[in-house]
Design goal:
Elements lengths: L1 H16 L4 H13 L2 E5 L6 H10 L5 E5 L6 H5 E6 L4 E6 L6 E5 L6 H13 L1 E4 L2 E4 L5 E6 L12 H4 L2 E6 L5 H15 L13 H12 L5 H13 L19 E3 L3 H17 L7 H12 L4 E2 L1 H5 L4 H11 L4
Parallel strand pairs: 1-8, 1-9, 2-5, 5-8
Antiparallel strand pairs: 3-4, 6-7, 10-11
Helix pairs in contact: 1-2, 2-3, 2-10, 8-10, 9-10, 10-11, 11-13
């Protein structure tokens, strides 16, 4: 499939442009291939914004970066009706959400009323202003970033909005070897000696065609059942045996993952197989992407936090508990 070949070329190019974040780049491409929104969480300087910008450059799509701040208003995202004195009428001026790829930088700095405006765009791919509903571009997707350490002037994302993100990616520091390559690449770029070959972007039409191809990736029923078991186990932690404890994890969660998580896991694992050059899903695809699909969909309670147990611990134990087909 030519479109699959084009995406594999973009994947190769991005991995030469962004050093030490291969998993991040794969998951950004999975978001593009499924039309899902992606939440990136990591400390400053880990190439979150750089990776999103590089991805946008690989697609001939309209791109807009929005810096979220506490004084942001819903109209700053959606647009608003502006009065025109020339003809004494109101004209709608589109906001940045009408672009195809939107980078929501530091999304948790926006107040709840802005979050609710963004929620409609993410879920329904439309916005409503002045009682009029307007459709967003077909390619529309939100790539959001947040800093886990910065708490002053931030607002926790509501669980309803978190559930609209296909993936929640947590970034860590690069290895010493990768950081050395980053230094060398920055020096080459500073002195104009970076010899990377130019990237030939793919069109939005090719992206939409790729999404149709991903939807046709073959998934055996036994793997669909495996996905349902993994997600279902988040609602029945009494059946999960902790690795180093005799105590049950039944009371660690306020809520498990919904069926939307099963749909997301199926789509993401299909896109993972597509990026690997296959037209069928294998269990390793599901296992590899499951933490990014599930970690933001588990509502932990105070018992889990006091026991120093996080969502990733629970997910890994679920994967170890459910038999792999």
């Amino acid at each position: 499939m030519q479109t699959q070949t084009d995406f594999l070329q973009i994947r190769t190019h991005l991995k030469t442009a962004i050093i030490g974040q291969e998993n991040l780049l794969d998951r950004l491409l999975i978001g593009v291939l499924t039309g899902g929104h992606v939440l990136l969480e990591g400390l400053p300087g880990l190439a979150k914004t750089t990776a999103v910008t590089a991805l946008a450059n690989g697609i001939q799509a309209s791109f807009q970066r929005i810096q979220f701040t506490p004084d942001l208003m819903p109209a700053d995202l959606t647009g608003s009706d502006i009065f025109s004195p020339q003809d004494s009428t109101f004209h709608f001026v589109k906001g940045p959400l009408f672009h195809e790829i939107v980078l929501a930088d530091e999304i948790n700095r926006a107040p709840p009323k802005v979050q609710s405006a963004l929620l409609e765009a993410m879920q329904e791919q439309q916005i409503t202003v002045g009682g009029v509903t307007r459709d967003l571009p077909e390619l529309f997707m939100v790539l959001a970033t947040q800093n886990p350490l910065e708490q002053s002037g931030t607002y926790p994302l509501p669980e309803a909005q978190l559930d609209r993100f296909l993936l929640h990616i947590v970034l860590d520091y690069p290895s010493a070897e990768d950081e050395l390559l980053i230094l060398q690449r920055d020096r080459q770029h500073h002195f104009g000696s970076d010899k990377d070959s130019p990237l030939t972007p793919i069109t939005p039409e090719a992206v939409l065609n790729a999404r149709r191809e991903v939807a046709e990736v073959h998934v055996e029923q036994v793997l669909e059942e495996y996905i349902v078991k993994l997600v279902g186990m988040t609602r029945h932690l009494d059946k999960v045996q902790p690795a180093d404890s005799d105590e049950s994890w039944e009371d660690l969660l306020r809520a498990g993952a919904s069926p939307r998580a099963s749909i997301a896991l199926l789509r993401a694992s299909s896109a993972m197989a597509y990026l690997k050059g296959r037209d069928y899903v294998i269990p390793e695809d599901i296992i590899a992407i499951a933490p990014d699909v599930l970690r933001h969909r588990l509502a932990l309670n105070h018992t889990a936090r006091s026991a120093n147990i996080n969502a990733d611990d629970i997910i890994q134990q679920i994967i170890a508990t459910v038999a792999v087909p």
